[in-house]
Amino acid sequence: LLLLFPVFLLCATLDLLRLQGVPLVLTGAFGVLALVFWLVVTFINEEATPGAMTSSLNGACYLATARIFYVHAYPNNTIGQLIIGTIVIVGTAFLLRTVFLMYGTVIPQNLSPETHSQILYTMLLVDLLGIFMLAMCFPLFDFLRTEEALAFANAQLTQFAERDPLTGVYNRRVFLDRLEQEVERHRRSVVPMSLILFDMDHFKHVNDTYGHAVGDEVLRHAVSTALPTLRKGDLLARYGGEEFTILLPDTPLAAAVRTAERVREALEQAPPQIGSVAHPRVTASFGVTAAVGHTENTEDLLYAVDDAVYTAKREGRNRVCIRATRSGEAQSHALAEFPTAKAS
After folding, report:
1. pLDDT digits (tens, 9 = 90+) for 72-88
2. What is the SS3 assignment for 231?
3. Into how many domains does the chain fold?
4. Which long-range contacts (CB under 8 A, 24 or more apart) does 266-271 make?
5. Given CA atoms 202, 203, 208, 210 in this order, what sign does their dihedral have?
6. Which residues are known catalytic residues?
7. For residues 143 and 146, what is the distance between their CA atoms, to the nearest angstrom?
8. Among 88, 198, 309, 313, which has the highest number of CB atoms less than 10 A from its own CB?
9. 140 and 18, same structural domain?
10. Residue 39's domain spans which residues?
11. Three-class DSSP category at 322
């Protein structure tokens, strides 16, 4: 019964935390406690009863506390594991002491007074260690949980600062920073780098006809359609409004045009499904440019790709146009492979 007593305390504590019927749980807990105490006092040697009950109660409290902290306040790090592990060891030691006390009432002659004293001092040290760990775990766990909450909040702030809240892709600031980095890398090693800008066609008409909620779904549909066509290292970002950019590191102009065509065809062939209604297809106009030579800069690239989109709009939309910043040869090569791509 003394060994079952800590198990009962643990179960009662967990039930109290988990169930909404708190009065019923408390009533049952007090009833079982009264029964256990009556059985212990009635059937166990009176000399061993106080020590066994105290030891069992200590073990139960330590194990229940360890369980509560593990379930509700456990920081997933080495310090938390060390503290909870120590509390479990202390609780287990008290349960072993309970067994020893019950065993000692049967054959006390097998244990010398020196052994009794050593065990008493050992349990005193164990108890002090447990009290110290319990005193430490409250403020320390609170501190560790606060740190975890701060880390999560910082991650959320970083997410909000880097991502477009509507579509989930990177925002304009992240794109411009990454573009500057890629341009610098291109200047140092002359690795190819291309840039795509696409603008949703007739987006104002979508907003005016179906409402801004449908317009938002169209933008999300454009992102979900474009992402599978890109490589892992490509960066898709919302440039502003209904404009999106795709930064293609280590990509020559011809490959960038192929990518733009894949995205354009995917948008053209997959009308957005909003609720149970399939809306008319949406298309986009694409501009493509590439960095060539050591003198490229972000301003020239952005101007070129924006001008290419303007040309695509002017020539009928739903097409890919190219504006080369330096190399007419690369431009001509891309045009030869893709008849739908026009140079501006």
Report:
1. 666 666 777 777 788 88
2. coil
3. 2
4. 266/225, 266/226, 266/228, 266/229, 267/222, 267/225, 267/226, 268/318, 270/221, 270/225
5. positive
6. 242
7. 5
8. 198
9. yes
10. 4-161
11. strand
